[in-house]
Each structure stands twice: as structure tokens, then as C-alpha cells.
Amino acid sequence: QVHVVQSGAEVKKPGASVKVSCKGSGFNFLSHHVHWVRQAPGQGLQWMGLINPSGSTKKYAQKFQGRMTMSRDTSTSTVYMELSSLTSEDTAMYYCASQGGMGANYRDYWGQGTLVTVSS
Amino acid sequence: QSVLTQPPSASGTPGQRVTIACSGSSSNIGRNIVNWYQQVPGTAPKLLTYADNQRPSGVPDRFSDSKSGTSASLAISGLQPEDEADYYCAVWDDSLDGWVFGGGTKLTVL
User: Fold this and answer.
1) What does the DSSP 8-state code read for residue A17?
2) CA distances from A72 to A75, A80, A83, B96 (A)
3) Of residues A85, A84, A97, the one with CA closest to residue A39
4) Residue pair A14/A120 in contact by the 8 Å Cβ criterion
5) Number of CB atoms found within 10 A of residue B81's CB
């Protein structure tokens, strides 16, 4: 059975960092690209970045360049996203989305989301 | 504002056909595959269609998509109450070198 499970909710103070994990199982997670997407309360989806299957290539949205870091642990099928210098504007639900395959074999699986609240 | 333009809202009655448009440019929709997602409030987005009218297993064929030039659209036929949700288009943008989303369309089933 396919599972993409993210770490639990976080409450952080302004200026702090948060690290969110995303673990895939039940499918070939190691061959998938993983995107990070966030959604502020009442708002739409915003792409943050992408890490390739080996972890050797990372692409970041310009907005997050310099304060976002993605990493991948193939031994545990887990991808991590760390966001630093948090402000109240970073309060949002953070999703990982695992994508792989082409054509009829294309697969697209999302985690359940991790709520990050930034508050003093 | 979003790189891809969607109408903020759409509505229809049960049984009707509804279409949601997504307008982009030559660097995104004009050259790459568009995904359509359904998001019920409080849940993660779910892939509906991709790669010119492909559907993941379990998605009914009431959902279909099309693309022409730099625009794409999602059609929902035989509208059902459970279709009430937010819908997003998404595509890779070669100029931005990133994934871009439409602003989302809130579908109301009257």
C-alpha cells in the first residue's frame, strides 16, 4: 500500500528554523522526484522546490533560495526540507509530493501535510 | 499573482458539465504537461488528470482535460455534490525552472 507520511505539526518562534520529513513506502520512492509545496491559510498552492531521486540535483523557487535546504536519505526513503529565518508569513501547511514514471506509469503521491505555525 | 490564470470560482448543478480554464504561456503550458488537482478543504491535493487526458487509477472518466496552445482546461461532466472542491492546474515552467500553479478555482455544486 502506498504511503507518503510527513512529520508532525510544528510551532516555531520568528527567526527559528523548521525541518520537515517526508517518508515514502509501498512504491519505488527512490526513483521519484520530490517537490515541496506550501499552502498558507485560505490561500493557493505555492511551489517551493524539488529534489531529484539521487539527491544530487535540487531546484529552489527564487522566493526561498538561500533559506531553504532539501536533502534525501536513500537508506531510509526519507526526504527532508529545512526552512530557516522563519517569519509569521511562513505559517502554512507544507506538503511533499512524490512524482515518477511516464505515461501510463506516471505516479503522483502527496503526503498528508505538516502544519508549521510561526508565532512569538 | 500566479503564473497560471484560473477563474476564482465556478458553479453548476448536479448532472451538469463544468469547465475550468487555465491560461499560461509558451514557457509552461505551451511546451509541458499540465496536471490537474482536486483539493477538498482540509486534505492534500489529489491528482485528477495529467499528460493530455490521462487519469490515475480510481479517477472517474467524468474528469477530462484538454490543451490548446498556451491554455488548458479541465472538464467535469455529470457533476456530483462530492465534486465540490478547489481545483488547481500545475505545470513545469522552463523559464522559471520550477513548478507553477494556477491560483485555484473553487467549484460549488448548487
Assistant:
1) -
2) 9, 6, 15, 23
3) A97
4) yes
5) 8
B24 burial class (0-12, 13-18, 19+ CB within 10 angstroms)? Answer: buried
Q: How far is A110 from chain B (nearest CA, A)?
A: 7
| Nearest CA among B72, B6, B3, B1 for reference residue B39 | B6
More confident site: A69 or A103: A69
Which positions 13-32 of B are in contact with A (Cβ < 8 Å)? none
**What are the residues whose beta carbons fall under 8 Å from the beta carbon of B102, sequence distance 6 or more?**
A44, B2, B4, B5, B6, B22, B88, B89, B90
Beta-bridge partners for A116: A10, A92
Predicted pLDDT of residue B24: 98
- Strand B18-23 and strand A10-12: the pairing is unpaired
- Strand (E) or helix (H) holding B22: strand B18-23
Is B7:B92 a contact under the CB 8 Å cutoff? no
Q: How close, in Å, is residue B44 to chain A by CA atoms?
A: 6
Least confident of A113-117, B52-56, B90-94: B52-56
In the A/B pair of chains, how many CB contacts fall below 8 A?
Answer: 53
pLDDT of B53: 87
Q: Tell me which residue of B110, B69, B66 sits closest to B89, measured CA to CA.
A: B66
A66: alpha, beta or left, given left = phi > 0 and alpha = psi -120 to 50? left
Interface contact B101-A95, CB threshold 8 A: no
Cα–Cα distance, A51 to A25 (Å, whole number): 17
